[in-house]
Amino acid sequence: MENPFENYKSKGESFDEMIDDQGVHDGNWQLLTKAVEAMGIDELKRRTLECEESFKARGITFSLGGQERTFPLDPIPRIVTSTEWETVEAGLIQRVRAVEMFLDDIYSQGEVLKDKIVPRRLVVGSSQFARRAFGINNFGQVRITVAGLDLIRDEKGALTVLEDNLRTPSGISYVLENRRAMARILPELFESYEIEPVVDYPSKLLSALLAQAPHHVANPMVVLLTPGVYNSAYFEHSFLARQMGIPLVEGRDLFCRANNVYVRTTEGDLKVDVIYRRIDDDYLDPVQYKGDSVLGVPGLINAARANNVVIANAVGNGVADDKLLYTYVPELIEYYLDQKPILPNVETYRLEDRDMREYVLKNIDRLVLKPVDASGGKGIVIGPTASDEELAHVAKELVANPRGWIAQRVVKFSTIPTVVGSKLAPRHVDLRPFIVSSPGERWVLPGGLTRVALPEGSMVVNSSQGGGSKDTWVLSSRHSAKKISIRQTPQLRVEDTQSTLDFAEILESFSSEQFTGSDE
Amino acid sequence: MTWRLEITHRTMYQYNGPVYSSYNEVRMTPRRGGSQNLLSSTITVSPSASLYGYIDYFGTAVTAFDLHRVHDYLDIAASSHVEVLTTKGPEHTIDWNNLLSDDTADNFAEFLMTTKYTTLGPEVASELKDRIRSEPTPQDGLEVGLEWVEEHLSYERGITHVRSSAAEALTIGKGVCQDFSHLTIACMRSAGIPMRYVSGYLYPGESPAVGESSVGESHAWVEAWLGRWIGLDPSNHVSHIDQRYVAVGKGRDYGDVSPFTGIFYGGESSSPMVTVSITRRQ
Amino acid sequence: MKYSQRSQTMLSRTAESLFWLGRYLERAEATARVLDVHLHDLIGTTSMHQLRWANEIQALVGMDISETTFDELATILSLSKNHPSSISMCYELAWQNAKSARDTVSLELWESINVTYSRLRRTFVTDLGHSPHAFFAWIKDRSAMARGISDTTMNRDQAWFFLHIGRSLEQLDGTARLLRVKLVDPDGEDWVVALRCLGGHEAYIRAVQRPVDKAKAIEFLLTDTSFPKSILFLAESITDSLGELSRHIVDPPHKPTVPPSLARLVANLRYPRINELADQADSYLAEVEEALIDLGQTLDSSLFAPAPESITSHTQRLEVWI
Q1: Which fold has domain B96-257?
Q2: Of A225, A344, C73, C268, which sees the most CB atoms within 10 A?
Q3: C132, C154, C176 — which closes off a domain?
Q4: Contacts of C122 in chain A (CB under 8 A)
C-alpha cells in the first residue's frame, strides 16, 4: 500500500507541527502516522465521507448565502502535549482574567484610564463602549462567561494570540461534533492515545450560568437567546440548548414587565433569571439600542440593571475585542496582575503614533492591515499578496482614520498534515480555545477548534472562505505510547443486511437516480 | 443671588388606535450639585405604572417605566423645586498649550469626539480650527466661534426637526436651540475645545416676581471646558448662563439627553403636547 | 418532576411549531395519497373522466377549481413552491417548524425530516415524469417513517401531544373535506376511490364486510372507531390528547379544555339518535367545522399565546426642544 506520508515535508518558513528537516520531531505523532499508513488513505477518506454524510443529514451546518453548508472535517487531528497545554491554559486564564478586570474597571471607576495605561479616547471612541449598560452591577460577578481567543503558532512554533473574542464566540459545537466523528473515523487511536475529553463543555457552561443567577433565586431559569433560525450559527444555538437542557428562545418568546423578564410558555409566563445570549449588544434591547430591532427584548437592559436578570456575556465586552485595544493587553496583564504575559501578542503597530504610521506606510507591502472592529476576517488586507491598488487604497484609509486600523507582521501560521487528494500535504491552521468562567472558577476546554485553510498556501481559515476544521487532541498527562492495531472495516455483504438493504434501496433509488437534480 | 424655582413639565401623547404595551425612559429630573440644589422632584405617569429610577452614564437621572394594559394616551408630569445660584464670573486662566495638551485631550476625549449630530464638513472644520486657534487665548477663541455661529444661523422654528444635524442646520442657515447647540459644539470641538450638550429649562423673563407663574421653555445650551466647565447659551447669545437656567441632562449631543424615549406596540402617536410652567418661589 | 427540579418548559412558540409540524407532515402525505389514487385510476379512462377527477382533486386540497389536466395538477401539487398543499411546500414548512423547535423534536425525527426536505429540494419535474407513482410512494414512506420515529423516540410529554394534535386535526379536516366533496357529487358511485384516498378501502372491507355503497361508506367514515381516520376516532383522539396535555400542564388557569362543540360532536357520533347517519351527514360536517374552529381558538388563545410584540412597534415621537 502506498504511504500517504511519503514526500510529506513542511513548506517555506512555516513551522510544521509534525516534522522538521530531521524528520518527525514530535514523537506523539508516530502512532497516528503508523495508523494512517496501515489503514491507507482510501479507507480514511471513506470513513470521513461517512461522517460528512451524517453531518449533512443531521443538519450540522452553518448557513452561507442561504445555503446550508457543512464545515469540512479533516480526519488528521492536531496533537498537543499536556506540558504545552498547561502553559497555554495558564496563559489563557491570565489573559481573560486581566481583560475582565479591565472591563469591570472601565465600566465603573476607570482607574486604568486615570492612570493613563490605556488612552481614554480608545475606550470612549469605541463603537462597542456600552454607555447604555453602564451601571449594570457585574461587580464580583463574571463579565466574560465564554471567551474564545484565536491563537496561531508562529514560525518558531510558539503559540501566539491573534485576536480576542469576548462577545459571542462561536465554534464550540464543531469541537464537540468533531470529537464524536473522530471516534468513528479513528476509533483505534482512541484506545492508544489518552485524550482529554471535551464532552464536559455543556455542563461546565450550564454550571457557570447557574452560578451567576441572582442570589435569592432558588431554582434559576436559564435560557439561550438566539437571533433565530436564519442566523448562521443557529445549529450551534440549538445544539447547546439541547445539550444543556435549557429552552432555546427568540426575542419574541421573552418580554419584560416591571424590570422582570418572562418567557411565554404553555404554562403561562415564567420568570427568567439568566440569559445566555447569542445576540449582539446592538440588537438586545430596542429601548436602548436599535429601535427597529425585532430580535431583542424591550426593557432587558433595565431588568439587568435592576439585578433581576443576568445577561451573559455581559453587555459592552466588545470594547476589548477592538484590535487596537488588543495591543494593550500585555500592558493590562502587568497593570492588573503584576505578571508577565504568558502568551505573547503578534507584533502590532498602532497607527495613531506618527512614527509607527510612517514605518507602516513605508513597509505596507510586507504587513497585514486589519480594521479594528471587524470580525471573521472581513476587510483584512495582506500586504504581500495585495494588488498595488488595494495597497494604495488601504494606505489612504489608514491615514484618514488611523484609529480604525492596525498593522501586523505577516505571521506564517504553522502547518499540519491534511488530506489532499490521495496524499497528505501541509496546510495552515489556527486554534480557537474556549474559556468558561464562573464566579471563582475558570475552566479551559482542553484543545479547542482547529481551523485549517484548505487551499494550498492559504492562511484564511474562516469557514465562510474555504476553511475546514480538525479535531484537537490534548494528550493527558497519563498518556504513554501504546501499540496500535488497525481493523479494516469489512465490506458489507448483501446477504448479511437484507432488511437494511431493502430500505436503503428505496431511498437510494430516489436520491441517486431518479431524483437527483444538479448537485449543490 | 439665589432663586428658588418650581418647574412643571407636562407631556401628553394621544395615540390613534389602541397601544398594547410600551417601554419608556424619561430624562426630566434637574441635576443635583454645581450651581443647583434639587429640593424635590416627582414624576407621575398616567396610565399609572411603577417607576424605576437610575442615574445614567452622564449623571442624568432617568425614570423608566413600562405599560401593559391597553391604552390610547400617555401623560407624563415632571415637577421639581430647584434652588439655583448665580455662578461667579469668569476666571479662565487656561492657555492654548494647556488646553491642547495630550493630557487634556485624553481626559476630555468624550467631549472632543464628533458625533452624527455634530459633524461638519472637513473644509469648514479646518477653517474654524485655524480661526479659533489664531486667537490669543481659548476664551477669545470661544467668542470668535460664537460669532461665527451667530453669523451662520438665525433663530427660526419649524425649519429643522429633532433629528437634524449641525451640518444640516448650517446648510439651511436656520434652526432652534438644539441646532445652535450642536453647531456651537461642532465648531468648538474642531478647534480642540471640549464641549458638552445641556438640556434643561429656561426662565423666560429677566427678573420675575416671586409667586408669578410663567410659560417656560424646555431648552438646550452648551458647556465649554476652559479649565472648568462654563455654561453658555448660543441661541440667546448669552455667554454666561445665570440663575434662569436649570440643567437636566448633559452629554455629547442631543442623543444622550433626549427627554423622552421609548417604543410602543400598537397604534401610532401624534406629536406630543408639551407645556412647561416655571414659578419663582423665592 | 421525579428526576429534575424543573418541569419541562414548553415555549408557546415551540408548541405552535410542533402543532404545525404535525399538520404539514400529514398534509404532505394526504396530498400524495390523493394524487396516487387518482393516478392509478386514470389508466384507460376518458378525458371527460380525467377532467372531472382533476376538479375533484382541486376540491380535495382546497384549490380554486380551474380547467387543467391531471398531469399539470400533479406537477403543481408535488413540486410547486407556492401552493400551500403541494408536497414540496408542506415539507418546506414542516422543515421550518421542525428547525424552529429543534431543541424539542428528537434528533432522529429532525434528521428524517431534514433528509426528506433536502432530497425534495433536489427533485425536479423531469424526475417526476419518470415515475410519479414511485415518488408518491416515497413520500408516503417518508411520512410513515417520520410518524414512526416520533412515536418511538419522543417522550409522551407536551411536545408529542402538540405534534399529535396537529396531526389528528389535519386528518380530521381531511376526512371532513373528503366527505363534503363526495356528498355534493351527483354521481355517487366512486366511494371506493374516496375510501382509498384515505387508505381506508381495506379497512372498510374488514370492518363492514359488505360491498361499498354510499350510505355505509359515509357511516364508516363518520363513526367507525376501528378506522383511525374516521371523524369519531379522530375527534376522540384529540379529546384524549387535550386531556393528556392538561395533565402535563400543572397550572390550572393554563390547562387546556375541550371545546363544547368537540364534546358535542363526539357524543352525537357515538350515540346517534337516528339510524340513517348518511342522511344527516351535512349537519355532522357542520359540527366538525365548528369544532375545528373552536379547537383552533382554544390552542391559539390559551397555549400558543401570540406575542403582543408581533404588533407593529413604533418609537415614541421625540419632543422638539426650543
Answers
A1: C8orf32 fold (3.10.620)
A2: A225
A3: C154
A4: 511, 515-520
pLDDT tens digit string along A472-495? 999 988 766 565 566 555 544 434
Decide if B65 touches C, using CB distance below 8 A. no
B73 Cβ under 8 Å from any chain C Cβ: no
- Give me the CATH code for the B2-86+258-280 domain, please: 2.60.40.2250
| Residue pair A475/A80 in contact by the 8 Å Cβ criterion | yes
Q: Determine, for residues C311 and B266 on separate chains, whether the beta-carbon distance falls below 8 Å.
A: yes
What is the b/e burial string over B12-44, where b = at least 16 CB atoms within 10 angstroms of the residue's CB? ebebeeebbbbbbbbbbbbbeeebbebeebebe
In three-state secondary structure terms, A403 is helix
**Is residue C106 included in any domain, yes or no?**
yes
* Cell (9 digits) for A33: 502516522
Probe site for chain B from A116, A121, A319, A328 (most B CB atoms < 10 A) = A121
Cβ–Cβ below 8 Å for C99 and A229: yes
Residue C273 domain boundaries:
155-304
> What are the DSSP calls for A74-112, one per residue?
EEEEEEE-HHHHHHHHHHHHHHHHHHHHHHHHHTTT-HH
Mean pLDDT of chain A: 87
Q: For testing the chain C interface, which of B197, B264, B270, B273 should be mutated: the one with the most C CBs within 10 Å?
A: B264
- Say yes or no: C111 contacts chain A, CB-CB below 8 A: yes
Q: State whether C198 and C121 are in the same domain.
A: no
| Coil, helix or strand at residue A370 | strand
CA distance A264 to chain B (A): 15
Residue A319: closest CA among A81, A143, A71: A143
If asked whether residues C187 and C278 sit together in one domain, one would say yes
Interface predicted TM-score (ipTM): 0.93
Kindly tell me if the per-residue pLDDT of A500 is higher than 50.
no
- Distance between A177 CA and the closest CA of chain C, angstroms: 14
> How near does any CA of chain B get to the CA of A116, in Å?
9
Give the C-alpha separation, B63 to B3, whole Å: 26
Q: A286 contacts in C (CB within 8 Å)?
A: 313
Query: pLDDT band at B73, cuts 50/70/90?
Result: very high
The Cα A19–Cα A8 span in angstroms is 9
Contact B66 A116 (CB under 8 A): no
Residue C313 lies in a domain: no
* Residue C318 predicted with pLDDT over 90: no
Residue C319 confidence (pLDDT): 62
Least confident of A311-315, A325-329, C131-135, C306-310: C306-310
In contact, C31 and C152? CB cutoff 8 Å = no
What is the predicted pLDDT for the residue at C308?
Answer: 55
Domains and CATH numbers, chain A: 19-199+321-339+412-474 (no CATH), 348-409 (3.30.1490.270)
- In C, minimum Cα distance to A243 occurs at C103
Q: Is the pTM of this model over 0.95?
A: no
Nearest CA in chain B to C308: B20
